[in-house]
Amino acid sequence: MSAIKPVLTKGIGELNLRDLEVYRSEGGYVQFERALKELTPAAVLDMTTRSGLRGRGGAGFPTGKKWSFLPNDGRPRYMVCNCDEAEPGTFKDHMLLEETPHQVLEGILLGAYGIGSHHAFIYIRGEFRRGYEIFRAALDQARAAGYVGSNLFGTGYDLELTIHRGAGAYICGEETALLNSLEGKRGEPRLKPPFPALQGLYQMPTVVNNVETLASLPHILRNGPEWFAQVGPERSPGYKIVSISGHVKRPGNYEVALGTSMRTLIDECAGGMRDGRKFMAVQPGGASSACLFEEHLDLSYDFDTIAKAGSMIGSGAMVVFDDTTDFVKAAHAVVRFFAHESCGQCTPCREGGNWISRTLTRILDGRGVPSDIEVLKSAGHQMTGLNLCALGDSVEPFLASVLHRFEDQFRAYVTAPQAAVA
Amino acid sequence: MTMASEVHLKIDGIAVTVPTGTLLVEAAKQAQKHIPVYCYHEKLGPAGLCRVCLVEVEGMPKLQIGCNTVATEGMVVHTQNAKVDDGRRAILEFLLLNHPLDCPICDKGGECDLQDYVMAYGQDSSRVIDGKESKPKAVDLGPTIVLDEERCIVCQRCVRFDELITHERSLVVKDRGAHDIIATATDQPYVSQFSGNVTELCPVGALTSKTYRFLSRKWDNHRAVGSCAQCSVGCGINVDVRQGAITRTMSIPEDVTSDGWLCDRGRYVISFGDDQRRLRTPLYRHREQLVQVTWDDAIGLWAQALQASASPQRVAALGGGRLMNAEILQLQALFRSFGTPHLDWRVGRSQQAGAGRATASLAELDRAQAIIVVGVPPSQSAPVLDLAIRKAVFRHKAQLISVGPFGAGSSVPQQRAARIDEVAGLLPDGTERIVFVWDGIDPQLGREIANLRTQWSTHGRSAGVLVATTLSNAWGAEALGMHPSFGPGYQPLASSGLDTAGIFAAGRAGELDVLSFHGANPVLTWHDASIVREALARIPFVVATDLFLTQTSELATLVLPVASAFERNGTMTNLFGQARPIEAGLPVPDGALSDSEVLVALAQALKIALPDAASLTSLEERALEAARIAPLDCGAEQLAGRRLAPDRPGLQLALAANVFAGGGTTAHDTRIEALRPLPTATLEPATAQRLGFVAGTLVDLHAGAASVKNLTLRLDASLAPDTIALVADLPQAPANLLFGSEPLRLEATRVLEEVAA
Lengths: 422, 757
Ligand SMILES: Cc1cc2nc3c(=O)[nH]c(=O)nc-3n(C[C@H](O)[C@H](O)[C@H](O)COP(=O)(O)O)c2cc1C
Ligand code: SF4
Ligand code: SF4
Ligand code: SF4
Ligand code: FES
Description:
Chain A is α/β, with parallel strands linked by helices. Chain A has helices at 20-25, 30-38, 41-51, 63-68, 93-99, 101-114, 129-144, 175-182, 211-215, 217-223, 225-229, 262-269, 303-308, 327-341, 347-367, 371-382, 396-405, 407-415, 417-421, and strands at 78-83, 119-124, 149-152, 157-165, 206-210, 239-246, 252-257, 279-283, 317-322. Chain B has five domains: 6-96, Ubiquitin-like (UB roll) (Roll), CATH 3.10.20.740; 215-270, Phosphorylase Kinase, domain 1; 283-352 and 473-629, 3-Layer(aba) Sandwich (Rossmann fold); 355-467, Dimethylsulfoxide Reductase, domain 2 (3-Layer(aba) Sandwich), CATH 3.40.228.10; 652-756, Barwin-like endoglucanases (Beta Barrel). Chain B is built from 20 helices and 35 strands. The model of chain B has no long low-confidence stretch (mean pLDDT 92). Chains A and B meet through α14, α15 and α16 of A and α2 of B. The structure holds flavin mononucleotide (FMN), iron/sulfur cluster (3 copies) and FE2/S2 (inorganic) cluster (FES).
């Protein structure tokens, strides 16, 4: 499988990386110890910036740049690892958590050190009970081994880590909703500005980073930022785990260099389409992303190329649809999900999502009318760009892309309802 | 790098200059442009929820929200163009999707921001095919407020008021997405001293006051603008009247004194004026019965009694703390001209030690580094003052200390001190600006506060004092001369008359012929009811001006029906020493007169010349001015050594305040039934345990032969140990029966079943 380059996933399925000794024998915690003993936080920040690493949680924001926004004002700073992974189609973070918990932990510790934080947090999705237990055990081992706590390696540097479990809301993956939830408040996004870099957790300067983002740090330190930067496209470098699901032969997580083509990902990694089935569409970045089609398959899978094509790679979740797909039902599933997960704070997301969801439900019930098509198009459009957080802007992309491409499927429902339902 | 203090920008082509940090919603006002808002509110700040405040900022691809976008130098803003209009229309369409078509029956109709903005910016046709989601229409949130879930647009103003202004945090948003609803955090009733404000903040008709539901429409109300006369704060108030009855009172958003809020007393105690029990004719005691007499006869009888008295020294007048400034001046002028020196306004519990000498401004309270609450919490005596305290504590990090048996207010972090002399030890070095908020009840405490002030002033500490009471014009009554030792403006008198305690003592000794009460009810409010009753029994001619037959006026010889504060014009002086305008929303009802008219009639009958209107005005101004600069401690020596209550062994009695207690307006307002306090006795939990009592027990409390019965026992951890607290001034359980040094005995009658079960 030429496309697959195991870095983050190295050893998974072969070694018991949950065991501290095994992880150590693979070079684990060496970078953390080196950082604390030999590197200043500024040096870690500099290496992260030079690696070109972009956030793996969805927005693809350059990690080093994000860290550099923290003000130097003497207040305590917090590093928060986002392990809420709930975007339909994404399933890489909990794999990392369960299979290589020490790699995740070392990444968090390095990230915390890189921003000069003495207290890090990990927010674990409530449903990830197994991952939580495994990570806890790893944390206990690491603490006993002197990687977490006070005066680490005799350097005088203190670093604590707190695990927080979510309670089952997709919106709590949004970084400011996550911070509210972590503080024990209702999980709803905060109004920005102020941004977390200035007023984050408990009003202190805070960085929220994705699990995979942080897990990349030990490798960047070990192999050098240039090693990471030279992989893949210049502005979208590095290794990335892509969760591939849908109508492919071998759904699963595949680690590749960014810049691999989508065709390679589907055909080589995921084994191609199911037998006898034809590729129709792909969501390159989970439920929030617009579909791309046959003509896009040779595009390089990286942040900028896919954005230019009108979609996004998000957290790296490809959902593949073949020619058996009823795109009205698919659109309904996606819209209903976002309407259900809307926190309800802001008007367009709360009302618009519900409106579109109800309209699609009625269409599928065989009670659609031709004017519904117009409503689906305009309501989706008019709720986008007006919301407080990105969830509200996630309703439209998939719906609009399939409505545009497969309008006939929608029309069939509203003109000959009974026939379509049958 | 220093930041420029001003920025220049263009809003719809109009150049404006605003202070750095100004939000676009506010900046637009300068350009006379209106940006519509729902969730934003000047006093709550931005929340960014409703998204109706969209504007276009050149150079930014997406529309921005005007409520959270800060004006920057050179910004070019459009509050109206095709793009903005589209965005707003979209938001309004979303808001109407599930909004019921209630306008014709909605209390908010005519003053609803949803109605108004849809008319201004919305579209007139609906694209909705699916039926509207139906939700509960009349959710009982608590004793005062009803929620219509269908009308709610989830702007969260109510929730944020409860969080940012009252800090009580009882309202929350429950569920999520399209199922969002407003509820209480605990599913317990929404109980707050300030609940009514949410009905004003609510931009739609989702939150309504039970007292106003379906009562009137905006356009049927006519409005008088004045100040609330229900306590010593004097909040600015709009009084809405329809067909001769008050339908509601509303805050005045720009009023500085109240910061635009009202408490529930000011908002809901409005219906006593047309209560059936309202007195409509003078009453005279004839053969033990009160019989109706004409005003001419009534004034004649009173004048006769005064003239028949052997000496003006055998005449006294009490009260005035609820009168207008001008009426107080007339009252003291009349009796001083007649020759009596025995005048006192202090008819509440004990010798209230000088409200008028209080010196602190609202600004000083706001800027104080430490606020020291002495005695009953102001939340129960002058509620909106407590909001100002909460603001100082939460926004400006003032330190709050409460002295005495009660906590200063449950929603505010505070330190406790049992005695005043412990306070100094709690203040960190560098605390220079201090304000005392005192209930004015115990003269001994007043003395200690005064001493501390003197001591501190030599150490560079300044300490102001505010006296918070339910009396609307205590400050004015004292500053304008209803005081045995001072004339208007604290002008010292050649010789002092008797104070209230002295007057009652003289009455009991048979040394008084005529005593008049001017809006006072000491049988209920004086610390020892038996003294008052004994005095009244011995004084041959007792006059009471009042709205109702109260515990005191029902014992009088002559009862004169007078006008309420809603029925006359004038000024009252609030606890900051500011004259506040009162405007009549209603005429004086048939059969009643204003106190001023009563006094003028009596003066005529006695051939005493009272100052005319013009000289009253100038006298008022001069006296208040002089009072504001009078030293706080003048006359304090009089009070030294007086104690509120003799020492009593064992359990101590503490009198708690409740804004809805009292025997007058609150007791005669049938629409606030649910708000009136129930007779309770409160113990601190450990004390209750030691004495072997559990919450919910029905108890009687005895002191010697006197008892107060049927009190429900409550526990409150913020109460001092070894103390039992009763609500003062409750007609059905008058705590002032238990005054004295006899030990208190608590006796269980039964455990309430629902609590015991
Ligand atoms: C509705 C919503 C859900 C999100 N869920 C997640 C999530 O589960 N995990 C995650 O890492 N980021 C999630 N994000 C993105 C975070 O807000 C944030 O951008 C990210 O954690 C930053 O980490 P990164 O810079 O390392 O990518 C979500 C964003 C939105 C708007
Ligand atoms: S966009 Fe949706 S999820 Fe995000 S804040 Fe608004 S209502 Fe909540
Ligand atoms: S009840 Fe009124 S104030 Fe409260 S959220 Fe709803 S609309 Fe806003
Ligand atoms: S605080 Fe006092 S003046 Fe203000 S509304 Fe309440 S009762 Fe009236
Ligand atoms: S007023 Fe700006 S979002 Fe509500």
